[in-house]
Amino acid sequence: MFGLKYIQFDAMTYVIRYKNGEVAKEGRGLSFFYFAPNTSIAAIPMGSNDVNFIYTETTADFQEISVQGQITYKIENPKQLAEVLDFTVDGKGVYKTDDYEKLNERIINEAQTATAAFIRKLQLMEAVTSFDALGKVISEYLQNSSTIGSLGITPLSVNVLAVKATPEMSRAMETKAREELQKKADEAIYERRNFAVEQERMIQQSELNTEIAVEEKKKEIAQKQMERQVAEAENQRKIREMRIEADISVENKRQGLIDMQVSNEKKNADAKGYSIETMLKPYRDLDWKMLMALNGSGDPGSNIAMAFRELAENAGKIENLHISPDLLNTLVKKRG
């Protein structure tokens, strides 16, 4: 009635009430009555906002690509933004101008400027795979942009969703990619075969090394056995030498004993001979007849034996000798 109106805003909207061109009241989530002829109201949304973008650029090899993504930002200084762009609303809270859309355009323009500087340094194949790098470039550029700073907003995140070439180049790249994949598949098959061959060679080499090691071990064992046999033969030789030396020593001692026994026996014989010589010395020059007479046993047989001996000594002088059988029998009986 008579230009007096009431308006109410939610808590996510920063409201600036101007009266006669001067700020009369400001804050979030305001509600008030106002006189329309001398009052204007600016409403700036405080929540985070998403800006979708898609634009085309040219790579270093003069190929056209399209870049699609999303930028999320938040208004940090609504009063500063209200001084740059017109966020005035009518009595129903509807924006009177399209400056809200201009804000998004300015953000997109800054993002496209950063994209162009980055993409024009890359070849097509590099560009279509540069999602993460491009997102970081755009984010850093917006953070340092004076234009973004003058708007009183803060970029929260930048997501590059797609970097695409033209359909013709996409098909060409797909063909090339398939060829590369086929080449890699062939290389993988070759590598698997080469790996299998190498593994087989390693197994054969290992088996050969094992056989060599076994032969070396056998050779070492045979050498050890030979050394043991040589050592045993040497020990046996030493034992035989020791036994021979012992036998020689025993024989030497035995020979010494025999020599000593012979010497003693010789000495005994010499002593006996000397004793007999001494005993016989007085009778050496005597006639045996005298000795027989001295023996004086008076044995008739002995006397007869002496008589026969004298006959034998004088056999050349005797022509005939007659011994009767009775006499011979008598002599034999007496001797028996």
From TrEMBL:
It holds the Pfam family Band_7. It is found in: Membrane. Residues 205-243 form a coiled coil. It is a single-pass membrane protein. Residues 14-193 form the Band domain. It comes from the Bacteria. InterPro entries: Band_7, Band_7/SPFH_dom_sf. Keywords: Coiled coil. One of its GO terms (cellular component) is membrane. This is SPFH domain-containing protein. It comes from Rapidithrix thailandica.
